[in-house]
Amino acid sequence: MVERLWQDVRYAARSLRRAPAFTAAAVVTEIALRAAIGASRAQLVRHTMVEEVSGTDTATLTLVPGLLVGVAFLACYVPARRAARTDPMLSLRAQ
Predict the structure, then answer these.
(1) Spatial distance between the Cα atoms of 66 and 57, rounded to a whole number of angstroms
(2) Which of 43, 76, 86, 89 has its CA 20 to 30 A from that of 61?
(3) Pairwise CA distance, residues 53 & 67, whole Å
(4) pLDDT of residue 56
């Protein structure tokens, strides 16, 4: 199990070295999605168990994850848009 974890860490380091912007965007997206899911779940549990209020507060349960997913989308879209404007031949010649 430790060997498998070490392989994953080495693979992550290689992919980070090759494409740091893409790797960072993927990590930010994953973190934002996990935070959105966790926040909506925590909100649901808080409403149903702590305050004894209905757990179907659709405004909160959709706006918070939606906002987090929107921020993650922008964090990925802006670097991707900038990379799309680059001429591929210039990038290939530089390597």
Answers:
(1) 14
(2) 76
(3) 23
(4) 66
| Nearest-angstrom CA–CA distance, 40 and 38 | 6
Question: Per the structure block, which two tokens stand in for 85?
Answer: 């404007």
Cβ distance 66 to 35 under 8 Å?
Answer: no
Tell me the helix, strand and coil percentages in the chain, rounded to 5.
Answer: 85, 0, 15
Residue 50 pLDDT > 60, yes or no?
no
Element (H, E) at 52: none
Neighbours of 25 (CB within 10 A): 19
Tell me if 25 sits within 8 A of 79, measured CB to CB: yes
Closest CA to 46 of 55, 35, 58, 38: 55
Distance (Å, whole) CA 35 – CA 38 = 5
